[in-house]
Design brief:
The complex is a heterodimer of chains A (190) and B (80). Chain A has 190 residues and is mostly helical. Chain A contains nine helices and no strands. Helices cover 75% and strands 0% of the residues of chain B. The longest helix of chain B is centred in the middle third of the chain and has 21 residues. The chains are: A mainly alpha (190), B mainly alpha (80).
Chain lengths: 190, 80
């Protein structure tokens, strides 16, 4: 690598984080612009609401600005920011959950497992728009695990780490989320 | 095992998380049981659509990042 190439290397996330922690707002702005779309996309997928996603994105970066000094580079910055974003969205769900909702003591909406019969009870062909609409109707716990696993592509170990639950809980929530989605999609088509 | 027990295993089966013996049991059941196989196909369809969503980030209509950045600056002033 030539000296010129070294000079033009963009600063790493860790370098920008350290500069931000020292009060360099232009470094923080670079971090913001580098990760804005990723954060917004995750917020949008978890809420399915553009206005909430915008507000949450703002909250995430506000929180990030306050916490940036605690990033030590032990994990990838994207992983750290991902966790921070999910936690921010979950806090938002908790604040919103003052609304009455039918949940079990564990905070889950009971899933009525509809046993399939022959083809008449099969779900209609699912498209992205129908699935997005169905995801909005999932209880927050199911929605979070489904989005993190099936949409975002995290594995159960990562989800367990992000959410502070066991991998077994993550697997169980994912299965219930998929069954619940099937139920919702069938009802939508009825 | 009855159908309810097999239903509990469908996500693990789909995600390749079952051991070989259990996987074979589920596979055999699905080939014999049309309702359970129907549910499995539905779950498969849901997951496959979610995977398509993963690759469609471009389909998201992103807000103007400059506007949110400006709002962020205002927020920071309040914090300070």
């Amino acid at each position: 690598m030539s000296a010129a190439e070294v000079e033009t290397q963009p600063p790493s996330d860790l370098e920008l984080a350290q500069q931000s922690a020292a009060g360099d707002t232009s470094a923080f702005e670079q971090l913001y612009r580098r990760h804005f779309r990723r954060v917004y996309a995750l917020c949008f997928r978890m809420t399915s609401n553009p206005t909430e996603a915008e507000d949450l994105t703002q909250d995430v970066f506000t929180h990030l600005f306050k916490k940036i000094g605690s990033f030590r580079g032990e994990s990838a910055f994207t992983t750290w920011l991902h966790r921070l974003t999910v936690n921010q969205v979950l806090m938002h769900f908790r604040r919103r959950s003052a609304r009455p909702e039918f949940t079990t003591p564990e905070g889950e909406t009971p899933v009525q497992i509809v046993t399939g019969t022959a083809n008449p009870n099969r779900m209609p062909i699912v498209d992205r728009i129908a699935l997005e609409r169905a995801i909005t109707q999932l209880p927050p716990g199911y929605r979070t695990v489904f989005v993190l696993h099936d949409v975002e592509g995290n594995d159960h170990a990562e989800i367990a780490d992000i959410l502070g639950v066991s991998q077994g809980t993550s697997k169980s929530q994912l299965h219930k989320a998929r069954l619940k989605l099937r139920q919702i999609l069938r009802q939508q088509a009825a | 095992m009855d159908c309810a027990k097999y239903l509990e295993l469908l996500s693990d089966y789909r995600d390749g998380a079952l051991d070989q013996d259990m996987r074979a049991l589920v596979q055999t059941h699905l080939s014999d049981c049309l309702p359970c196989d129907g549910i499995f196909q539905d779950l498969e369809s849901i997951v496959n659509t979610a995977i398509i969503m993963r690759s469609e980030t471009l389909a998201i209509s992103f807000p103007d990042e400059n506007v949110i950045w400006q709002r962020l600056n205002l927020t920071k002033q309040i914090i300070h």
